[in-house]
């Protein structure tokens, strides 16, 4: 197990006195890892970590999170700086290639993404199979999965060029598919992408323009939505990214793997929290109800949780939530909703919770989802579309992790084991012998 000149830890079975040396490996930042890859072969043991609270599933160079300090870096750049000074497509490039693009690289990248935003005309038919009141995330699971039936020229995932083509298509087409899901829900005609608009402007145009009249994108709103995309672009080995990695570890079709990621993101404990936060804020109604809401969130007999609060990794304020709160104020001011009652309720709820011993002791802070719904609603995005926008943005991270995993010569199919507590071996009982 351990090799010479390696830092090691020793695992000892106190009941037998047997022990094993395990290699200890350091990254460039963050906790060291204990290499247990040979544990089963050498000690006939598994580690046990439901929910993967203490498990590093892979080596990655893309994103680093320090949950105690509330730090989020993408390829070493703090999220606050990227949100303020970069744009979403530039961050998508950074996530995928590891460096910020130079002017030539950026022009090529943006040009290529822009020219891949249209979807195959036959894909439009998939939407009419859904009820108009289908949740847009159900539609996105379907249509993104359906992309796997359309592009047979980028199926060899071991060919870097074909991986690059699939990556461009995914990043480029998600806004189009997302906007189509909205248009289908509201019964308006689909709007085609416009290549003279940037990524965020194009998305807003496809969402809100109608063929009957010209639509001018508000630059404050397009800048805000671009910043929101940046804040949601990637987040290390979260549930949906881990789902994409596990699905793609079998060599599955990239579009099908992204559909799996969308399905995982949909859950209210993950990307579905932004929609759940807004529903919670609406249910709270008046600030007078906040003490009762906080009480219920602390009540172990209740399964109610303060949505948008808490995080598996952040035991400090989610740095994305700080930027989102600032964006909230900017957009609401621009739209003349300075005194949005939902924002008032959210800020009072945050104030009360952050002073409460339960939240302080358990280190529960607002996460990225706490304020995002307020700003999206103010921009006219329907609540059911909030997680679709999260999936749109997170596609940049999913694609970067998909590329990183497939480029790793040591990558293998993900296949966890288990602690088995079922029946021990027993013989079959014929039907006429059963009680
Ligand atoms: C995202 O992984 C990522 O990076 C995700 C994400 C990304 O960008 O990909 O950051 C996006 O998913 C953000 C999280 C959005 N979800 C929510 O806002 C839903 C509400 N939050 C929780 O359900 C919860 O905080 C989780 C799911 C986010 C984290 O859960 P953990 O890490 O499994 O923590 P836990 O459930 O073990 O909670 C620890 C304790 C528990 O109390 P005890 O059993 O120890 O007594 O804190 C309590 C929990 O009951 N707790 C909460 C709470 N969150 C945790 N109590 C009240 N309200 C909450 N929101």
Compact summary:
The chain is mainly alpha-helical. Helix content is 48%, strand content 6%. The strands form two sheets. Strands 1-2-3 form a three-stranded antiparallel beta sheet.
General description of the model:
This protein is mainly α and 435 residues long. It is 48% helix and 6% strand. The protein is built from 18 helices and 6 strands. The chain has helices at 39-43, 79-85, 88-97, 103-114, 124-127, 136-146, 160-186, 199-208, 219-231, 239-248, 254-265, 273-284, 290-298, 319-334, 341-354, 357-361, 369-378, 386-407; strands at residues 8-12, 19-25, 33-34, 63-66, 71-74, 77-78. The strands form 2 sheets. It has a 3-stranded antiparallel sheet. Strand 2 and strand 3 (33-34) form a beta hairpin. The longest helix is centred in the middle third of the chain and has 27 residues, at 160-186. The radius of gyration is 24 Å and the shape is globular. The mean pLDDT is 95. It binds s-citryldethia Coenzyme A. The site of s-citryldethia Coenzyme A has 23 residues, from loops.
Topology summary:
Layout: E1 8-12, E2 19-25, E3 33-34, H1 39-43, E4 63-66, E5 71-74, E6 77-78, H2 79-85, H3 88-97, H4 103-114, H5 124-127, H6 136-146, H7 160-186, H8 199-208, H9 219-231, H10 239-248, H11 254-265, H12 273-284, H13 290-298, H14 319-334, H15 341-354, H16 357-361, H17 369-378, H18 386-407
Antiparallel strand pairs: 1-2, 2-3, 4-5, 5-6
The site of s-citryldethia Coenzyme A has 23 residues, from loops.
